[in-house]
Amino acid sequence: MRTLVLLVCLILSFGAKADDANQQIRVLLQTQVKAWNSGDIESFMEAFWADPRLRFISRGKVRYGWQSAYEAYLRNYPDRDAMGRLSFNIELIDLLNADQAIVVGRWQLVRKDDQPNGIFTLVLQRFDGGWRIIHDHTS
Predict the structure, then answer these.
(1) Which fold has domain 2-138?
(2) Phi, psi dihedrals of residue 65, rounded to the nearest 5°
(3) What predicted TM-score, i.e. pTM, was given to this entire model?
């Protein structure tokens, strides 16, 4: 009986931690949207792991490293008109363990002449400074 009580306590504890992680990840992504919609790509990039091992896959290319991803954003979105207004629709946050998660969602930009949109899969890692995107595959 004692083992069962301990098991239930562990499950409830993990559930509470999973809820906290889920909320922290949602806040991180909402902060990204706010930064983007303010025209602040540098703040948008704070959600990404600032490391040469960051992987970013988009437009048929694989980029490695925070700097490479940042430069691609600056090149592809040189001004507020190109940036448009961003929104995310998070479809899934799957906590793999206490420190890693996968997020699947949809993105959309609303711009003067078009409304590009697509799907993304993110792998996030919890570091001492909080959750960061370590792998981004956006189509």
Answers:
(1) Nuclear Transport Factor 2; Chain: A, (3.10.450)
(2) 100, 145
(3) 0.85
